Amino acid sequence: MKPERSHNDIRIGFYVCHCGSNIAATVDCEAVAQAIARLPGVVVSRDYKYMCSDPGQELIQQDIREHGLNRVVVASCSPLLHEHTFRNACAAAGLNPFYFQMVNIREHDAWVHTDRAAATEKALALARAAVQRVRFHRALEPTRLNIRPEVLVIGGGIAGIHAALTLANGGKKVYLVEREPSIGGHMAQLDKTFPTLDCAACILTPKMSAVRAHPNITLWTYSEVVKVDGFVGNFTVTVKRKPRYVDEELCVGCQECVKACVFKEPKFPDEFNAGLGRRKPIYLPFPQAVPQVVLIDPDRCLRLKTGKCKQTCVEACADRQAIDFTQQEEQVQIQVGSIIVATGYKLFDATRIPQYGYGRYPNVFTSLELERMVNSSGPTGGEVLLRNGQPPRSVAFILCVGSRDLKTNRWCSRTCCMHSMKLAQLVREHTGADVTIFYLDIRAPGKGCEEFYDRSLQEGIQFVRGRVAEVTDWALSPEEEGKLVIRVEDTLAGFVRRIPVDMIVLAVGMEPQADAQELRRLLNLSCSTEGWFLERHPKLAPVATFTDGIFIAGCCQGPKDIPDSIAQAGAAAGEALALIDKGYIEQEPNTAYIEEADCSGCKSCIPLCPYNAILFDELKQKATIQAALCKGCGTCVAACPSGSIRQNLFEDEEIFSEIEGVLA
Amino acid sequence: MNSRQPHTDPNWQPRIVAFFCNWCTYTAADLAGVSRLKYAPNVRIIRLMCSGRVDPQFVLEAFARGADAVLIGGCHPGDCHYVEGNYKALRRFQMLRRLIKDMGIEEQRLRLEWISASEGERVRTVINEMVEQVRALGPLNLPGRFADWDREVAALEAHVHAGETAAQALEAEVVHAQA
């Protein structure tokens, strides 16, 4: 690249900001301005109280016009804070904003040092580096990328549903991809929701139906995203559609086939009822399922397993002919501009804590199993029953199972305190049993939650503070016979107790989905060490990710309750809408490019690029960089043995001159 | 290294050049500032988008220009904004460490640290530690050593040249005498 101007033409304006007294208290700003004024090419060198203020910016603009400045350096705070402010000021005066360079003398100098002389010397060194560097700057244009208006939402739980509906109502085309045969997610399995005790189905099912009916939503259930190519504005996504063996267009959900199935009685554990209920090989996942389309379990269906069956289901379907045993897995490709990930969580596997006896003692349940039991359309028709069919007289809840535990998961799952209190109230309502909750701390920070806790106390629910050591059926006294005994140190009473109960409910925590890491790689996201998807900034960008155009919502980002999930889904949809409606995005032009003449075609750079932005032109025997894919890390630049890869804004000359400047 | 004498200048201060990635370590240094943590003023931070951009030549250039030590800061393994730029930085760091050792530069003068955006405290600890270590090592003074080497080479050249002239003169004398 040819320099835009010869060095003689370079006219630099240098400004050092006092930031009130934030900088000036530690750095002698006047001395810095005077010293910089003596450097070659510096036409104007000033210090000013607040450079970021309107008059400060006006000062720069005036100097650009009056002194014909073509480079601007401001020594003030971190470029992460105000770089765009000063770039815009330059642009407003007609100077290409990339002729600007910022020096961080507040966060990296004035605020971290006490010795005024040393801090001033450091400020001077940093300023000198910038003044030397800015000479090499070139006029750049931010690259513009067009954004496709379609959005993919991965995950059809409450977060995915809400995001899809928001976008669709905004007139955008949405693809909603759900792995299970119905949308609804974990919320569909809930009976009532805390702290209002309103029925989960009553608030969820209308939204589920709205998804099905919405002209802007393409709903693909029983489908998974298997491949994602491209970048913000233009992703190519491959979706795998698993065979249901029932034609979705033809099935009306009458379930005549289910009645007609050769299995007269439902025989197989039912996933929706957490294994407590039974279903047939052909089934509707649950009564309110969306879409209202049955499916056939190929591992259970005689026709699919053995080929030998009377196929009474086909007869029952009669003229509709919706059942199709020849269905195959399909792969569909779609083009979308942005993606919302709302893949949710998985429940902690309670067998991982063997001392609580889940799977060993029949009357130890998980909170989800109890949830299904209290539901009137659940496997027990809404009755809370022990495995022997009797109602329990005493029920204990053990909290923090797989949460806040160094042996399993360190994090708080946030909902289990409230969820258990809700179940405790329902159990009391349904059975009148004595209910004890074993807790570490009660966490009830949500709106109306503390009041709900108070109500639980008033309803006579007992609270014992302490982590339960063990659940055993080994009776030491007559009243413990035939019961499950909880051994716990009551940390408020200060002694170890044995408490016999009929039923134990484990409040299992939330964990990242088992395949979260695979999806992370598919989408080039980051995960926290625990495996939750990482947001771009915990406060300022809570639904954006480090990959432009991909947003996260709901529990895949971390445990949260329904209101928070919905709020986040709305935020993610809003961010996606803002992106789409602008029609394009501007990217920092810090991309790498290749000086073709110097490229030896060694291909060392190609495997280094995490974005596959570098292609090899077989014809020319040269590497080429697709600017739209390049994210500007500069790894290839540092690796190129012939020095033919260069990076805008971080050219070798620029960095060498900075090194020279700080050490001069 | 005959030019390396124990430093006697009482005013000598170590000079450390730091290359920090934009997303983690530079942000951590900003956080240290916002938290008003105090640390030694001997480090000059140069911002790059990723530790993967640190060309080994930058490190060598810094030493050659008079840095007493070089610090590279990147995101923790697995946290790189650019997926794996920090691993590339690690590879180059390993190579550089061997290289500078062969050049007679102590290994402690080059350091690579993973500091995430939330670890402002770590910035302070690392910088303070490094300044102390380098203070104990004394100045590296590569420019001074280059000057010494240049002088040595110049002296050698002059010596060889003088020898050649003398030989030529002798030869000319012999030829003259024979004639």
Please provide a brief summary of the model.
The complex is a heterodimer of chains A (664) and B (179). Chain A has five domains: 7-140, Rossmann fold (3-Layer(aba) Sandwich); 149-242 and 329-344 and 523-587, 3-Layer(bba) Sandwich (FAD/NAD(P)-binding domain); 256-316, no CATH class; 346-511, FAD/NAD(P)-binding domain (3-Layer(bba) Sandwich); 592-648, 2-Layer Sandwich (Alpha-Beta Plaits), CATH 3.30.70. Chain A contains 17 helices and 34 strands.
Which key phrases capture this entry?
heterodimer, A: 664 residues, alpha/beta, FAD/NAD(P)-binding domain, 5 domains, five-stranded parallel β-sheet, 28% helix, B: 179 residues, four-stranded parallel β-sheet, 4 strands, elongated
What does this structure look like?
The complex is a heterodimer of chains A (664) and B (179). By secondary structure, chain A is α/β, with parallel strands linked by helices. Chain A has 5 domains: 7-140, Rossmann fold; 149-242 and 329-344 and 523-587, FAD/NAD(P)-binding domain, CATH 3.50.50.60; 256-316, no CATH class; 346-511, 3-Layer(bba) Sandwich (FAD/NAD(P)-binding domain), CATH 3.50.50.60; 592-648, Alpha-Beta Plaits, CATH 3.30.70.20. Helix content of chain A is 28%, strand content 23%. Chain A contains 17 helices and 34 strands. In chain A, helix 1 (29-37) packs parallel to helix 5 and helix 6 (158-169) packs parallel to helix 15 (562-582). Chain A starts with 11 loop residues before the first strand and ends with a helix. Residues 1-5 of chain A have low confidence and may be disordered. The model of chain B has no long low-confidence stretch (mean pLDDT 91). Chain B is built from 5 helices and 4 strands. Helices cover 51% and strands 13% of the residues of chain B. Chain B has helices at 25-34, 56-64, 85-102, 120-137, 142-178; strands spanning 16-21, 43-48, 69-74, 110-114. In chain B, strand 1 (16-21), helix 1 and strand 2 (43-48) form a beta-alpha-beta unit. In chain B, strands 2-1-3-4 form a 4-stranded parallel sheet, sandwiched between helices. With 179 residues, chain B is α/β, with parallel strands linked by helices. In chain B, helix 1 (25-34) packs across helix 4 (120-137). The chains are: A alpha/beta (664), B alpha/beta (179). Chains A and B meet through helix 4, helix 5, helix 16 and helix 17 of A and helix 1, strand 2, helix 2 and helix 3 of B.
